[in-house]
């Protein structure tokens, strides 16, 4: 991957990326280390942006004696670029499924799009989601509503309220020292406690993907993300066995960032025109 694809080259502090200048009188917090930017972006935008953070990683600034660090204004610029990448990818998928060109899709199509982005939901979870958004089962969604639908699905990791409560209670049961985090060994014990028989190597691989800050421990949100990834892995194995007689095969799964760089390279992240 070539660093800086899709971004204007210049003398800005973002390692070859020009940043807009703040308005006169803009007050900002003291700068922080550039090396903390990735962790800050993930905390601000959520764990589901981790693949997009990887896309930006090659062009993010690094600590150096010449730089004072990252100010809050610059952090907001990078967060905006990260969100733009996510929206562009979702927009491309939305247009692909909007075969009529009406700018609206049916609910079952929205569920398929969520599945493409790593969240397969059962009926109860969808019903709770719609209730929370004030939508009905026969509703159609425009792109703004689709963004809200995906955001709500990610917020609960595609689980029902009762599933989230059950998983959260199990997490706290193993949080012996009340630190809010579990070690990898504790996470493995918890997974066994929940009755999962997934291969240990597979679980360790997923844990490494979820532990984005590489601190060797896992908080509740990281754990719920891990449970979602394990659920998706199990669903993928089930789909690989083939559809039942008379049923159509589901659409092929893809990583959320399959097209992100193509879009960014073609249009430039700053030129993305959809504003929510």
TrEMBL record:
Ion transport among keywords: no
Keyword Acetylation annotated: yes
Domain EF-hand: 85-120, 198-233
Keywords, comma-separated and alphabetical: Acetylation, Calcium, Metal-binding, Repeat
Residue ranges, compositional bias (Gly residues): 1-14
Annotated segments matching region Disordered: 1-30
Name of this chain's protein: Calmodulin
Native organism: Prorocentrum cordatum
Top-level taxonomy: Eukaryota, Sar, Alveolata, Dinophyceae, Prorocentrales
């Amino acid at each position: 991957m070539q660093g800086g694809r899709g971004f204007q080259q210049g003398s800005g502090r973002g390692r070859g990326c020009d940043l807009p200048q703040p308005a006169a009188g803009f007050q900002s917090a003291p700068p922080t280390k550039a090396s903390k930017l990735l962790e800050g972006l993930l905390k601000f935008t959520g764990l589901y942006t981790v693949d997009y953070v990887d896309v930006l990683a090659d062009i993010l600034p690094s600590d150096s004696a010449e730089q004072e660090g990252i100010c809050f204004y610059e952090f907001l610029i990078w967060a905006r670029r990260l969100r733009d990448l996510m929206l562009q990818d979702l927009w491309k998928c939305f247009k692909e499924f909007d075969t009529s060109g009406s700018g609206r899709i049916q609910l079952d199509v929205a569920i398929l799009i969520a599945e493409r982005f790593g969240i397969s939901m059962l009926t109860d979870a969808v019903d709770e989601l719609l209730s929370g958004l004030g939508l009905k089962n026969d509703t159609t969604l425009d792109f703004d509503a689709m963004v809200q639908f995906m955001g709500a699905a990610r917020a609960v990791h595609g689980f029902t309220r009762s599933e989230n409560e059950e998983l959260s209670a199990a997490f706290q049961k193993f949080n012996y020292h009340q630190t809010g985090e579990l070690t990898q060994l504790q996470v493995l014990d918890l997974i066994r406690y929940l009755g999962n028989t997934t291969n240990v190597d597979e679980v360790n691989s997923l844990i490494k993907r979820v532990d984005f800050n590489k601190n060797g421990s896992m908080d509740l949100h990281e754990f719920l993300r891990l449970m979602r990834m394990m659920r998706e892995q199990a669903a993928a194995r089930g789909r690989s066995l083939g559809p039942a007689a008379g049923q159509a095969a589901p659409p092929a799964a893809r990583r959320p960032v399959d097209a992100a760089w193509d879009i960014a390279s073609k249009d430039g992240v700053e030129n993305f025109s959809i504003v929510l």
